[in-house]
Amino acid sequence: MKNKFWIVLMVLMLIPSFSEAQCAMCRAVLESEDSQAAAKGINNGILYLMIFPYILIGGIAYFIYRSLRGKKQATS
Question: Which residues of the chain have pLDDT under 50?
């Protein structure tokens, strides 16, 4: 069970590096450029912004897990 969890976690962590996140208008404007430097910068910025909600939710889940685990050990 633990191995399955780690495999799924690793796959989920690799998904953002494969994704290209842009809205349709940004894509249309940036594709008209000759150099793709601005498009790569926009993609990186969007991916960095996507990380923070996952970090917050993971932190909250960790603290809930830790508090429930502490209550369980105190009653045992």
Answer: none
Q: How far is CA 1 from CA 4, 7, 9, 23, in A?
A: 5, 10, 12, 38
Cα separation, 33 vs 29, whole angstroms: 7
Provide the domain limits for residue 54. Answer: 2-75
Distance CA 72, CA 44 (A): 42
Domain count, the chain: 1
DSSP conformation class of 57: H
- What pTM does this model have? 0.48
H helices of 1-76, in order, are 2-18, 24-31, 37-75
Extract the tokens encoding 43: 């993609």
